[in-house]
Design brief:
Elements: H1 3-6, H2 10-19, H3 24-37, H4 50-72
Helix pairs in contact: 2-3
């Protein structure tokens, strides 16, 4: 990852990337950060099971978010204390 992005938190890097979508270096830094944290969900087009596994991972995250929302009675994801449950970014 480039030193330019090392000092940014994951949330700061995400916001930077969303505001600078043509910055490929920021995109790769963000994806590296997601992969390193285990938050990325990837699909291998050569593996027939990959899509099913990705769908299972997504469903688990949706269920965890719903339980968290119900527990605290609020839509604020960061209040859950689960950084890995960040809402997906629409592309």
């Amino acid at each position: 990852m480039s030193g330019k992005y090392d000092q940014m938190s994951s949330d700061e890097l995400k916001q930077y990337f969303l505001q600078h979508r043509n910055d490929q270096e920021a995109f790769y830094a963000y994806m590296d950060r997601l992969n390193a944290s285990g938050r990325a969900i990837t699909i291998d087009p050569t593996d027939p099971e990959s899509e099913r596994q990705a769908n299972e991972q997504i469903q688990l995250k949706v269920e965890l978010l719903q339980r968290c929302k119900n527990a605290i009675g609020f839509d604020g994801i960061t209040l859950c204390g689960e950084a890995s449950l960040e809402a997906p970014t629409p592309w």
